[in-house]
Design brief:
alpha/beta; Helix Hairpins; three-stranded mixed sheet; 5 helices; globular
Length: about 180
């Protein structure tokens, strides 16, 4: 029985390592630690925003290499500023771009259209060999934000693809360049 337990443990360990390799993205330029920090920043920021503002705001927090993009809608300038303060209070945030709009919250069809734009851009990027690990895409009311650790050539390719995608009103580059 003990031998079976050891064998099972080794099999699980090997299978787990295989899963990591299968799902890892060779184009990902962030370290695994930075990827975890980015996920933690997003989770903590959203939880803290929801705690303070409940259902009065619709906010998306996107972190890439500890650079945080805040998008969405808030009812006032005070709440927009408060949201930025909350995000800055999260551990490991390096820099923030606060692109929150002040005013009426958008209707669900706008969110669906944004999701479709993001999906179309990702699909085209993948065909051009720029994978989701290279460029992160956020679409908010037809405005596309591009984040990532990229070369200037990759940035230009991503921006060109985004700007020629149906429904895109504007493209904003929020890149860190590696060349």
């Amino acid at each position: 029985m003990r031998l079976f337990s050891v064998f099972l443990f080794v099999a699980i360990l090997v299978a787990g390592q295989g899963c990591v390799n299968v799902t890892s993205n060779s184009a990902e330029r962030r370290s695994p630690g930075t990827q975890l920090e980015d996920e933690s920043i997003e989770t903590k920021a959203i939880a803290n925003i929801k705690e303070k503002y409940k259902d009065t705001v619709q906010i998306t927090v996107t972190s890439f290499n500890r650079f945080v993009l805040i998008t969405g809608d808030a009812p006032s300038e005070d709440s927009k500023t408060g949201i930025e303060r909350i995000v800055y209070s999260v551990l490991n945030v390096k820099k923030i771009a606060n692109e929150v709009s002040v005013g009426v919250l958008p209707i669900p069809s706008v969110r669906r259209a944004d999701a479709g734009i993001t999906r179309d851009i990702k699909s085209t990027l993948n065909r051009k060999a720029l994978t989701s690990g290279t460029v992160k895409i956020v679409t908010e009311k037809g405005v596309v934000y591009l984040l990532g650790l990229v070369t200037h050539a990759d940035a230009n390719t991503a921006a060109e693809i985004a700007s020629t995608t149906s429904g895109v009103l504007k493209v904003v580059r929020v890149f860190e360049y590696i060349d």
